[in-house]
Amino acid sequence: MQTPPPCQPGDRVALLSPSWAGPAVFPAVHELGVRRLREVFGLEPVEYPTTRRHSTPAERAADVMAAFTDPTISAVIATIGGDDQLKVLPHLDRDALAAHPTRFLGYSDNTNLHHLLWGLGIVSYHGGSTMVQLGRGGRMHPATEASMRHALFGTGTDAVEVPQLQEWGDSERPWDDPATLETEPALEPADPWEWHGPATEVTGRSWGGCLEIVDWQLRASRWVRPLEEYDGCVLLLETSEELPDADYVYRVLMAMGERGMLGRFGAVLVGKPKTRSLTEPRTDEQRRTYVEQQREAILRATTEYAAHAPVVLGLDLGHTDPHVIVPHGGLVTVDPVNRTVTAQY
Fold this sequence. Notes:
eight-stranded mixed β-sheet; alpha/beta; 345 residues
């Protein structure tokens, strides 16, 4: 795997919407993220024709190619996720992407592009967007800011311990309310990570992302690598604001197991699940039940198909807040004895 060159202060960074053009609907949120890229990270954001325009998969792919092949662009950051980036991938020039390794940050539907880059041998970074993490109300969370700094400026050999945070949240506030951008979202005490499986230290390349998109990738199967390439890798999993139920989560992992894939991973890291949304509010008891049911589904599948692998639950890797950006394709060490997770940025 090749780690693209790091950014330098003052570099140009592309802001793309390879999935949903959220900045066209909620420009104030996106523009807050743009300002923070300049003021917090010292980078110069560059937008493209489809960044703020609902566009076809081919048009979005053209912007992806323009950004990745521009030698003056040091990184590409997705503005937000969506639900159809799978249709963008066939329009991309894989040879040109391989010839121009560029840092890519995104999550959720951007898991699609992460998988394509992984297949090309290019390390990317799972997490970060202008409209969620950079555009967070009040301020960026310090843990998110620190991990984004590693993702943008790390050398590829910087070993950084993934933080175990003491607070978390998954509340949603309306983006069309100006007050949302002025105050930080509410957080609550976080449970410690859960460790399961053998006390065996594992170091491997990370692969995975949003579970629902992993499912779509496996169904389409065009960007899935030969199974032996996943041997000893560290599987990253997290679920989205669509709140998939435990049966669905188990069935996706069951299918990975029957495919002969799940058992090839050396370790499994699972992000805290989002438990509610604006359209589906839940009581605290309902939220706790949802977390427990997903936990049981994941442990059932990993016990059946990957009993050799240490499994860690409750990391801040996905659709919850704070959100920690981690390498996708970079080396990750899972140490059950010292109960640490370390990533090379």
